[in-house]
Predict the structure.
Amino acid sequence: MLKQHTFNRHITREDVTYWRCSQFAVLRCRARLKTKLDTLTILNSEHNHEVISKARKYGSLKRQRAEAEAAARASDPLRIDAKDEPGSA
């Protein structure tokens, strides 16, 4: 745990272990750590979610993911969805 965020072991090679945010699979969080013996290195400290301290309600991730995708589309002025193109139904 680092700053109340939890991490899962991803890969271990010799004396180096790579960790990724426990929300990687569900929220595609890109936060990463590396440990080598007793040394911790933060590879990416940015989480795309708040600290999650308790179990989520069933179905809440679909809503949260849809909101995150909508925010990403809104922040990318060059992105054009197929439904926004002329002549699409």
Observations:
- The CA atoms of residues 35 and 69 lie 31 Å apart.
- DSSP finds two helices and four strands in the chain.
- The two ends are 48 Å apart (CA to CA).
